[in-house]
């Protein structure tokens, strides 16, 4: 993935209110994730199935640090959930968006219900723009369902005199941990 | 005309902020003109052969196990929603923010049938609490001041008076989030559909559509038959144009695509019903006003309309279609006898046409409405006035510059 595309993505991502950090490999990203979660003082995390996250050894690392991951079971969802953890299928550099395609163990709910959302993203999943991503999709995943969620920044409502209130239904904070592979 | 200064200021501010954001966002688009042309082409392509595209959409969606129903008018659309809900054995649902749902007056029909329908969009929810009709396609309570919203919440929920928009939004957010997590059935107005792929798209910044499509077991989609794109590439162009013109950003915070019921192991609806709503749209095309149906309801024309700035969403015959395009579409869509009053809401400034990303010639369409009106309902009492008026309106350029000059005085 070319550096200018990664930079474009970071610029656009921050423009819409997301925060980010970038690491040289998945192991460094794993440490960064632990640090980020510790800073948030949240031990319960709504998450994708941990084996489907693109960082090796994450289950053990989180467990050792005392974090409890749980899947998005409807009965356990509550409006005060603090943290959601997912990866992303792709990211779009020009708009600073991430794309989530649901699958078993890869629910949208960790990206939608908690107050904060952390995304783990290998830089090779960043596409220049929507057309580039669609082109790749047509070549490789044409017969899959086109149920996709494109997220560009945190959730907000500006219904009252256009004053932005972040975290309306989705997260108030979206943090991305980028890493090279 | 809104007499309250503070409300007028709020409307002006809404218009100015929106216009500034829109202009800024479009100025950052590399091939802005090409994108607009693509959007216009996308709209005209389907409008030119709507029945064929709708037939293809139906085939594509049925192949995805989506049940397809047709509603000729608003009454039938409501009946199909209620019937579908009864068939599913549900008596309550959440709905999203979409003008089509207001057009068919779904809330009223649901109430009459003992169905509890809650709007999840905070603007719609506040409008309902304040007994107001949504006044803008994007910001339903854009015309309400923070003081008015506070007074409503004080009166309805006995919350202490506060003029802090954050506190007020949080107050509304809590019950809505709780309702969302309990949701079973969602009724969703679709922003656009892509025919070729049989895909539906829902756009918002707060995430209510994505959450609803994840949590609801049953989803009933309502689609205005003209809001379709031939394929996903046209759909992408329309999404971008909509977001730039509505919110002043290249994409909204959430773009939710829905295609088929989800299998058991994945979040998402187990059943999807699609109701295709005509409600006079075919007739509008036949009557030669098809260009009006290019409208994607972005609200850009509202922000630049001097009349809308004065009256807000009131004066548009209680229709969800307000602003300049409302003046065109309401007599066509709702009642022809609205024509005179709606045409009178145009001051001929022409700003709407310049702001419209799909280049709808709004002043010309209003002019054509006036001609049609003049032909079908000539006033008997003052023929001289009528002939002067007819001469004036038969020269749109002259008429517009006359109005502009009057505005400058
Ligand atoms: S007429 Fe044009 S500017 Fe006005 S709402 Fe429709 S698409 Fe937007």
Give your account of this protein's structure.
The complex is a heterodimer of chains A (181) and B (409). Chain A is an alpha/beta fold. Chain A has one domain: 3-Layer(aba) Sandwich (Rossmann fold). Chain A is built from 5 helices and 12 strands. Chain A is globular. The model of chain A has no long low-confidence stretch (mean pLDDT 93). With 409 residues, chain B is α/β, with parallel strands linked by helices. Chain B has a domain at 5-281: Rossmann fold, CATH 3.40.50.10420. Chain B contains 20 helices and 10 strands. The longest helix of chain B has 23 residues, at 5-27. The two termini of chain B are 19 Å apart. Classes of the chains: A alpha/beta (181), B alpha/beta (409). At the A-B interface, α5, β9 and β10 of A face α1, α7, α9, α10 and α11 of B. β9 of chain A pairs antiparallel with β9 (254-258) of chain B. The complex binds iron/sulfur cluster.
Which labels suit this protein?
heterodimer; A: 181 residues; alpha/beta; Rossmann fold; six-stranded parallel sheet; four-stranded mixed sheet; 28% helix; globular; B: 409 residues; 10 strands; disordered C terminus; binds iron/sulfur cluster
Provide the fold topology.
The complex is a heterodimer of chains A (181) and B (409).
Chain A: H1 3-15, E1 19-23, H2 26-40, E2 44-47, H3 58-64, E3 68-70, E4 83-87, E5 90-92, E6 97-100, H4 109-112, E7 116-122, E8 126-127, H5 130-140, E9 149-151, E10 156-157, E11 165-166, E12 173-179
Parallel strand pairs in A: 1-12, 2-3, 2-4, 4-7, 5-8, 7-12
Antiparallel strand pairs in A: 5-6, 6-9, 10-11
Chain B: H1 5-27, H2 32-48, H3 50-63, E1 67-71, H4 74-88, E2 92-95, H5 99-103, H6 106-112, E3 116-119, H7 122-129, H8 146-157, H9 165-181, E4 185-189, E5 192-194, E6 199-204, H10 208-215, E7 218-224, E8 228-229, H11 232-247, E9 254-258, E10 271-277, H12 281-286, H13 300-304, H14 306-311, H15 323-333, H16 339-343, H17 351-355, H18 362-376, H19 383-393, H20 396-408
Helix pairs in contact in B: 1-11, 2-11, 15-18
Iron/sulfur cluster binds at residues 245, 295-301, 325, 355-356, 358, 360 of chain B.
């Amino acid at each position: 993935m070319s550096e200018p595309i990664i930079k474009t993505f970071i610029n656009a991502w921050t423009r819409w209110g997301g925060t980010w950090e970038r690491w040289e490999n998945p192991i460094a990203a794993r440490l960064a994730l632990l640090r980020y979660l510790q800073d948030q003082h949240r031990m319960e995390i709504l998450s994708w199935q941990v084996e489907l996250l693109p960082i090796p050894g994450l289950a053990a690392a989180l467990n050792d640090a005392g974090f409890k991951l749980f899947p998005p079971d409807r009965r356990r969802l509550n409006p005060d959930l603090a943290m959601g953890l997912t990866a992303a299928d792709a990211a779009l550099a020009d708009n600073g968006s991430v794309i989530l395609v649901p699958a078993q163990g890869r629910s949208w709910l960790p990206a939608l219900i908690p107050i904060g959302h952390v995304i783990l993203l290998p830089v090779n999943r960043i596409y220049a723009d929507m057309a580039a991503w669609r082109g790749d999709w047509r070549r490789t995943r044409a017969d899959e369902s086109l149920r996709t969620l494109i997220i560009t920044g945190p959730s907000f409502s500006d219904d009252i005199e256009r004053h932005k209130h972040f975290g309306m239904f989705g997260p108030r904070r979206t943090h991305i941990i980028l890493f090279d592979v | 005309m809104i007499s309250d200064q503070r409300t007028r200021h709020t409307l002006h501010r809404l218009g100015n902020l929106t216009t500034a954001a829109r202009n800024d966002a479009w100025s950052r688009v590399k091939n802005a003109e090409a994108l607009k042309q693509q959007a216009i082409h996308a709209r005209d392509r389907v409008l030119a052969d709507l029945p064929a595209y709708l037939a293809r959409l139906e085939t594509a969606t049925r192949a995805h196990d989506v049940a397809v129903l047709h509603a000729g008018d608003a009454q039938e659309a409501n009946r199909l929603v209620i019937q579908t809900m009864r068939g599913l054995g549900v008596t309550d649902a959440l709905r999203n923010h979409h003008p089509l749902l207001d057009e068919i007056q779904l809330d009223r029909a649901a109430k009459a049938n003992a169905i509890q329908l809650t709007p999840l969009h905070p603007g719609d929810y506040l409008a309902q609490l304040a007994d107001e009709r949504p006044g803008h396609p994007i910001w339903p309570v854009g015309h309400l001041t923070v003081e008015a919203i506070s007074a409503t919440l004080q009166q309805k929920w006995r919350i202490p008076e506060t003029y802090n928009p954050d506190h007020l939004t949080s107050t509304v957010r809590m019950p809505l989030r709780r309702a969302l997590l309990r949701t079973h059935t969602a009724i969703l107005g679709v922003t656009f559909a892509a025919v070729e792929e049989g895909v539906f798209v829902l756009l918002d910044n707060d995430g209510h559509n994505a959450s609803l499509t994840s949590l609801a077991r049953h989803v009933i989609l309502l689609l205005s038959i003209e809001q379709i794109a031939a394929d996903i590439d046209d759909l992408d162009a329309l999404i971008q144009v909509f977001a730039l013109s509505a919110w002043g950003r290249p994409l909204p915070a959430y773009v939710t695509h829905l295609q088929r019921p989800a299998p058991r192991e994945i979040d998402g609806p187990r059943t999807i019903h699609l109701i295709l709503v005509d409600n006079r749209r075919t007739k509008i095309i036949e009557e030669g006003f098809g260009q009006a149906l290019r409208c994607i309801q972005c609200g850009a024309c509202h922000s630049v309309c001097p009349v809308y700035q004065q009256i807000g969403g009131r004066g548009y015959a209680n229709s969800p279609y307000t602003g300049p395009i409302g003046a065109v579409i309401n007599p066509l869509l709702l009642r022809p006898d609205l024509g005179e009053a709606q045409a009178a809401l145009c001051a001929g400034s022409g700003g709407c046409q310049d702001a419209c990303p799909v280049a709808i010639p709004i002043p010309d369409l209003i002019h054509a409405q006036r001609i049609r009106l003049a032909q079908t309902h000539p006033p008997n009492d003052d023929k001289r006035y009528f002939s002067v008026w007819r001469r004036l309106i038969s020269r749109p350029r002259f008429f517009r510059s006359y109005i502009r000059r009057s505005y400058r005085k």
